[in-house]
């Protein structure tokens, strides 16, 4: 009897175990699987998949970052009696890249696969936006990070991860050139490195003793195209405008409106506007010029006559403020003005043949331009003829008509019916 009972128990034990396992799988495993799913979602895992095979647990999904992945796996390991089989932890972290612009610093954050991808991203963005500091302190790598489907290294400007960032960083072109003191300083953003080099080389040709500083001028293909960024045409204007003494400035932005400041004559103003027209099209030029009668009146004008310093200074003092005034509508030198000119002749003669002299007439800005030009030319010639008769050197002497300057302007002559003598 006992043997029969023992045999019955031995037969019944596997059956009971199988029934218990069946009941456990039916009643408990779904709840455990649901709990595993809940823990994965709580850790931030997207699209989680849980597969429970008795006590073995397989999971997959996407975690937002490696810390969230570790949190999810730790939560599953504390869910008895289930266990994660080796190789069943198919929770991946998709590569991510974010950017935040903080003044002149672009701060990158996110996760990339293990390698030197962070430095590659930094280098690429630095080339596209050389005006920004690229900070990668919050950009990390990890072995569990995977590239998005369809994307492979290396990074390019068209990479899906980078493209949205790059599009938000595209900036308009602008150019600023300021000549002040002993330096010509360039700044701004240009879409073409060749244009930058052309401008720098052009300014170096006309800078003379002035320093050309292009440090703050950046060129990048990431800069938006600009109508004013025209090689040769822009350089032709810059060469003419900055060949004259400072202070002067040229500023233009994406709106295409050039802003000019500095000293100019009416003739130079017209010439510069003509040079700018093919560069900026129909854009109106904002010209804030201090009008001067001639380039010889510019405070920074460098005298070309090769005279000894003492002779030059003495002659400048004699000529300073010396004007020959004429009667209205007349080109005849009055006896009083002839006496004034006669006293100048010895000083001019002693200067020798190296003296370059400009005899310029100031036209009346209120009169007819043609009449005033003809009258001014006659007055300048009359003064030149008188000085030559008195023995003044004739090797480099020139009679001209200065540009008219509106009355009340800082450089307006004391009398518009006058002739002025200047050293070249």
Widest β-sheet, arrangement of strands: 10-9-8-11-12-13
Please tell me the CATH architecture of the largest domain by its name: 2-Layer Sandwich
Report the C-alpha radius of gyration, rounded: 42 Å
Spans where pLDDT lies below 50 across 5 or more residues: 15-26
- Count of all domains: 4
Q: What is the CATH superfamily label of the largest domain?
A: OmpA-like domain
Structural class: alpha/beta
Oligomer: single chain
N-C termini distance: 141 Å
Secondary-structure element order, N to C: HHEEHEEEHEEHEEHEHEEHEHEHEHEE
How many strands appear in the DSSP assignment?
Answer: 17
Q: What percentage of the residues does DSSP assign to strands (E)?
A: 25-35%
Number of helices: 11
CATH class of the largest domain: Alpha Beta
CATH fold description of the largest domain: 60s Ribosomal Protein L30, Chain: A
The average pLDDT value, as a whole number, equals: 85
Major sheet size, sense and barrel closure: 6 strands, mixed
What does this structure look like?
This protein has 424 residues and is an alpha/beta fold. It folds into four domains: 24-91; 96-169, no CATH class; 174-291, 3-Layer(aba) Sandwich (hypothetical protein tt1634), CATH 3.40.1520; 302-423, 2-Layer Sandwich (60s Ribosomal Protein L30, Chain: A), CATH 3.30.1330.60. 37% of the residues lie in helices and 27% in strands. The chain is built from eleven helices and 17 strands. A six-stranded mixed beta sheet has the order 10-9-8-11-12-13, with helices on one face. Strands 1-2-3-7 form a four-stranded mixed beta sheet, with helices on one face. Helix 9 (309-319) runs antiparallel to helix 10 (335-351). The protein starts with a helix and ends with a strand. 28% of the residues are buried. The model is unreliable at 15-26 (pLDDT under 50).
């Amino acid at each position: 009897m006992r043997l029969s009972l023992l045999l019955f128990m031995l037969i019944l034990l596997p059956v009971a175990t199988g029934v218990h396992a069946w009941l456990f799988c039916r009643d408990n495993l779904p709840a455990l699987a649901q709990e595993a799913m809940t823990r994965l979602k709580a850790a931030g895992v997207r699209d989680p998949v849980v597969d429970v095979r008795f006590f073995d647990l397989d999971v997959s999904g996407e975690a937002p970052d490696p810390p969230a992945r570790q949190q999810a796996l730790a939560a599953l390991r504390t869910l008895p009696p289930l266990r994660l089989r080796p190789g069943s932890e198919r929770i991946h972290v998709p590569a991510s890249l974010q950017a935040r612009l903080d003044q002149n610093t672009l701060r990158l954050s996110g996760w990339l696969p293990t390698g030197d991808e962070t430095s590659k991203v930094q280098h690429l963005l630095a080339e596209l936006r050389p005006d920004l500091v690229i900070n990668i302190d919050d950009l990390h790598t990890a072995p569990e990070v995977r590239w998005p489907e369809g994307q492979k290294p290396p990074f390019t400007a068209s990479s899906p991860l980078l493209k949205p960032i790059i599009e938000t960083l595209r900036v308009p072109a602008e150019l600023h050139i300021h000549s002040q003191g002993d330096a010509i300083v360039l700044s701004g953003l240009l879409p073409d490195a060749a244009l930058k080099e052309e401008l720098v080389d052009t300014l170096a040709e006309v800078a003379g003793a002035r320093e050309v500083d292009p440090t703050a001028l950046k060129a990048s293909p990431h800069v938006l195209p600009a109508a004013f960024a025209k090689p040769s045409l822009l350089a032709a204007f810059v060469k003419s405008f900055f060949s004259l003494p400072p202070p002067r400035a040229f500023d233009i932005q994406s709106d295409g409106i050039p802003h000019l400041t500095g000293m100019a004559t009416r003739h130079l103003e017209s010439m510069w506007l003509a040079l700018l027209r093919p560069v900026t099209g129909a854009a109106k030029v904002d010209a804030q010029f201090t009008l001067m009668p001639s380039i010889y009146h510019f405070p920074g004008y460098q005298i070309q006559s090769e005279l000894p310093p003492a002779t030059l200074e003495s002659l400048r003092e004699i000529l300073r403020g010396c004007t020959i005034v004429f009667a209205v509508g007349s080109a005849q030198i009055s006896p009083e003005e002839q006496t004034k000119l006669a006293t100048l002749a010895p000083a001019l003669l002693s200067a020798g043949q190296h003296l370059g002299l400009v005899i310029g007439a100031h036209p009346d800005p209120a009169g007819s331009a043609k009449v005033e030009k003809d009258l001014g030319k006659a007055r300048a010639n009359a003064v030149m003829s008188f000085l030559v008769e008195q023995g003044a050197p004739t090797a480099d002497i020139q009679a001209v008509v200065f540009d008219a300057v509106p009355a009340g302007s800082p450089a307006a002559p004391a009398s518009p019916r006058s002739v002025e003598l200047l050293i070249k």
